[in-house]
Amino acid sequence: MATSEVQTVNTGADKAKLAAAVVLLLGAFVAFYLLSGKGALVQWGALLVGLGAAVAVFIVSESGRQLVAFGRDSWREVKKVVWPTRRESIQMTAYVFAFVVVMALFLWLTDKTLEWVFYDLVLGWRN
């Protein structure tokens, strides 16, 4: 199993990039609401441009590169998963339903038996 050692160096430039991304994100939302009188196309355009700029600045930061690397590693792991066939999925679902029915019957029988023991035999409330 290959492990990669991650070393995080928080430089001033990296912190500035993250701060700029947050400012761009907030600016995009502020522009969206301030441009409400200019029309929907201008409003949504400002929002999308601001969000795109915020994402671009975030991606070039160290945190953004780590997030992209994590996404790539996750996708690589998902490709390794052996997914069940349709027949196997239906078969396992049927097993689960059968188990639920058996457990429901068992709990119902247990409940009725305890009810009979306590109310009829011990307390004598039902005759």
UniProtKB/TrEMBL annotation:
Its main location: membrane. The chain crosses the membrane at residues 18-35, 41-60, 92-110. InterPro entries: SecE_bac, SecE_sf, Translocase_SecE/Sec61-g. It comes from the Bacteria. Keywords: Cell membrane, Membrane, Protein transport, Translocation, Transmembrane, Transmembrane helix, Transport. It is found in: Membrane. Signal peptide: none annotated. The keyword Transport applies. NCBIfam families: PRK05740.1-1, secE_bact. This is Preprotein translocase subunit SecE. It comes from Hydrogenophaga bisanensis. The gene is secE.
